[in-house]
């Protein structure tokens, strides 16, 4: 019996008491991360990294299916290159880490550790795009990036993080716009079908869009406590960067034109979204499709004859279709239950002498804790069904959470009242002015526009801005964010 | 017809004329890399990156099968952390890139962009290793690293490169030594079974070992031109870092002990080894197991009825088992042949009206250029057999190349004579003194000890050092290197 570990499992703050502390407890106790000696940089431990690997595998297949190719561009951006697009450098320069020495020698030009790679891709595109035959270019890369952050939290905000960044170039504005929306839809599908997370999607306001973009689209899942997490973004750049970098191509009519550009990214933050969407007071609950262990097999009374043998046989059988772990350590069954609950393993399979006698085993859902006895004859099907059910239940719960915490506000007072008393999102009309966004943020201590949802109704003639009461231009969803 | 591309295929220097230029031509014309605006950093293009992805997938499965887990440690190493192990910092500090500013603020302590991560792993191991129950720790990570290089060449020597670095901790010296050798053997297997490259393996001399290691083992494939490439290394550290970082564990007898450590790495250099082991004057030749396209289908007289239909049907069938591309562009067949030869696609499948009439197609080996007519009925088996054959032939050729260029030298004069006139490796006895290594290197303009091969015979009583004529301690293989 491992006393250190037993103690570990019990020490977790409840969500109600202190959500932030609950989060910190979970990432640490489920062994997702460790803190490093480098301020703001985290160590992703095997269990956390295995989740990221499953996420990568799933998303990468989606990208490749749509014709995207993976590449690798350098870690460093020369300062002069970063400065080529003015809005972009304004947005990113304040959070760059700068390399100034190579070996013993001071560099003639500072190098920025990439915070994002639009400028590098443009520099490369300039070399390889000449004719419409070279378009579209549909590139992606899986890399680390650095943004110097003052306050950091594992996964949610770290000075270094891992992500994928897609960068594409197209002949026409129409094609680039289509790509921008298509890739956001890939993210939405991925959140729903793979992570079991429901989210709203839409367009960012001018104020909240990416530095250098014409338009930014976003997916905004709501965490269990009503706070938003920007879960992935997709940007339409028009030909702004192309002009700044002088990237041109000869079109089908033999005219010289600027190509149209997009980029889109999703990062290790998504693991934060999984934790805060699905977790509970017993720890993580992982969506089956990315769980490193989908089913843990716990032998009951494992010293009795035949139990371990049967458990191993089950492991063998189930491993052909699922990610399975058999825990035959000498920790108590109770300890094991807590341990794998903390780690969010979606399904537990118990098997003991009585079960074997009945040619059955017990399946226990991490989510509902419901037990069911199932026959060993078709245990593969039963496990599959149970995992699918857990996925569906997680998704429904995530949807219910967002819907239950979606409020409306017609007036400034209502808006402030909801913001003060009801954690969640607020639907409210807006005039289109950044000034009103600023005012609402200040009045509420941080509520910002999340997006103009794709499914938002157009304002009617008598709809007015929740802030200034001028004629409304858009329905906006507002909320606090991580 | 694409004139730009047609020109491209023809412009390649022959290996005999200028091997270095041939290499540069190939990496560029096969579209493996592009040069970036950042000195010494390369852009890995889709075709090059796809090779790396296949390498990663293969090696990663080998590591995981042996119980290794992937993790992610930070990009940055605080200067004080790097300095904890004295030999290590001495070796790496001269080639570090240093971050000195975060945003607008000068950092209190400089951060090194990781050149390798022993120090970070030790800092983490200190937190997570307490008891023998926590051992072994078998970790690996796939990351980018930076070593500031003066002269750079794509894949072979770049300031930033991609690699995997394994880092493990063990209870005993014996277990750590076993891991060190086991992982070198994984590399040897991988070179032979996956890359079709024969290589010698052995132990580095004191002078050539890794900074901070007690022992370094290496795999040293020989390039087509007789020059060595250090293809992967595995290090045994003893408890040196553990002591420097104060990592201890409680052993089975309840005593406090230092764990024993290893690390091992293989980088994108391996792509350079593939190019220079297998390529020829027509471009790349890729080993089938990592080739992004294993078989390219070229329809002949594709405008004729039924040809494209049949070609598509074949693509459909073969794609179930192989990585296949059908090129139905309107480039000429001749242009296509050159293009896919340049790109090293191991097998070409031609299908035209006559073939269809005979229910057959033509398979052409990239290596031997031999054509064979095979029945469409069992084309999958024929393709599989042909790919296996190409792999075997590549391996045999690589072995013959190394064996034909393996020379012996008994005296200093012989050694210098061989070094001057016969590109390749030299087997020669050595006394064990670094002074002699230095002297041989100076006398030959760069021939260094590659390793003491595992299969080297022990020196007999009358065997003497090729340099100083004192009693020999080891048989060493010597050679120039990339």
Structure write-up:
Two copies of one chain form a homodimer. Chain A has three domains: 12-278, 2-Layer Sandwich (BirA Bifunctional Protein, domain 2); 295-392, 3-Layer(aba) Sandwich (Rossmann fold); 406-479, Translation Initiation Factor IF3. Chain A is built from 15 helices and 23 strands. Chain A has helices spanning 3-10, 19-29, 46-65, 79-82, 86-92, 118-128, 173-194, 240-245, 269-278, 307-319, 333-342, 353-357, 379-404, 412-421, 434-444, and strands spanning 33-35, 42-44, 69-70, 76-78, 97-102, 105-113, 137-146, 160-170, 199-203, 215-221, 232-238, 249-250, 256-257, 260-267, 295-299, 324-326, 347-351, 360-365, 371-375, 406-408, 425-430, 448-453, 474-479. In chain A, helix 1 (3-10) crosses helix 11 and helix 3 (46-65) packs across helix 7 (173-194). Chains A and B meet through strand 2, helix 3, strand 3, strand 4 and strand 5 of A and strand 2, helix 3, strand 3, strand 4 and strand 5 of B. Strand 5 of chain A pairs antiparallel with strand 5 (97-102) of chain B.
In a nutshell, what does this entry contain?
The structure is a homodimer of 482-residue chains. The first copy, chain A, has three domains: 12-278, Bira Bifunctional Protein, Domain 2 (BirA Bifunctional Protein, domain 2, 2-Layer Sandwich), CATH 3.30.930; 295-392, 3-Layer(aba) Sandwich (Rossmann fold), CATH 3.40.50; 406-479, C-terminal domain of ProRS (Translation Initiation Factor IF3).
């Amino acid at each position: 019996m491992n006393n250190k570990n037993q103690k570990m499992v019990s020490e977790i703050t409840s969500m109600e008491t202190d959500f932030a502390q609950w989060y910190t407890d979970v990432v640490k106790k489920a062994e997702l991360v460790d803190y490093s000696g480098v301020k703001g940089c985290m160590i992703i431990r095997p269990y956390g990294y295995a989740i990221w690997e499953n996420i990568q595998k799933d998303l990468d297949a989606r990208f490749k299916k749509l014709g995207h190719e993976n590449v690798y561009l350098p870690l460093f951006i020369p300062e002069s290159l970063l400065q080529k697009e003015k809005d972009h450098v304004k947005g990113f320069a304040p959070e760059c880490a700068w390399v100034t020495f190579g070996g013993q020698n001071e560099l003639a030009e500072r190098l920025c550790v990439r915070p994002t790679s639009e400028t590098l891709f443009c520099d490369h595109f300039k070399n390889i795009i000449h004719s419409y035959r070279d378009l579209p270019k549909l590139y992606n890369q899986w890399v680390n990036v650095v943004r110097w952050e003052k306050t950091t939290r594992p996964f949610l905000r770290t000075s270094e993080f891992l992500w994928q960044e897609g960068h594409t170039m197209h002949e026409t504005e129409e094609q680039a716009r289509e790509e921008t929306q298509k890739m956001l839809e890939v993210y939405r599908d991925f959140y729903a079908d793979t992570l079991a997370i429901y989210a709203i999607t839409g367009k960012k306001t001018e104020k909240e869009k990416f530095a250098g973009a014409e338009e930014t689209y976003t997916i905004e899942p709501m965490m269990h406590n009503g706070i938003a997490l920007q879960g992935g973004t997709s940007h339409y750049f028009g030909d702004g960067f192309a002009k700044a970098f002088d990237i041109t191509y000869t079109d089908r009519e033999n005219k010289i034109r600027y190509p149209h550009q997009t980029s889109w990214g999703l990062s290790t933050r998504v693991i934060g979204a999984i934790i805060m969407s699905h977790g509970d007071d017993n720890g993580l609950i992982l969506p089956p499709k990315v769980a490193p262990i989908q089913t843990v097999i716990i032998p009951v009374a494992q010293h009795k004859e035949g139990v371990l043998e049967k458990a191993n046989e089950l492991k063998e059988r189930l491993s052909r279709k699922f990610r399975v772990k058999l825990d035959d350590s000498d920790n108590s069954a109770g300890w094991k239950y807590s341990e794998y609950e903390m780690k969010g393993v979606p399904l537990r399979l118990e098997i003991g002498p009585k079960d074997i006698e009945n040619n059955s085993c017990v399946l226990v859902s991490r989510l509902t804790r419901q037990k069911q006895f199932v026959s060993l004859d078709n245990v593969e099907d039963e496990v599959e069904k149970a995992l699918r059910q857990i996925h569906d239940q997680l998704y429904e719960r995530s949807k219910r959470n967002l819907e239950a915490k979606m409020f409306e506000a017609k007036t400034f007072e209502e808006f402030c009242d909801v913001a003060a008393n009801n954690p969640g999102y607020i639907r409210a009309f807006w005039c289109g002015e950044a000034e009103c966004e600023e005012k609402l943020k200040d009045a509420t201590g941080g509520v910002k526009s999340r997006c103009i949802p794709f499914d938002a109704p157009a304002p009617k003639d008598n709809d007015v801005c929740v802030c200034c009461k001028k004629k409304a231009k858009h329905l906006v969803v507002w909320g606090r964010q991580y």
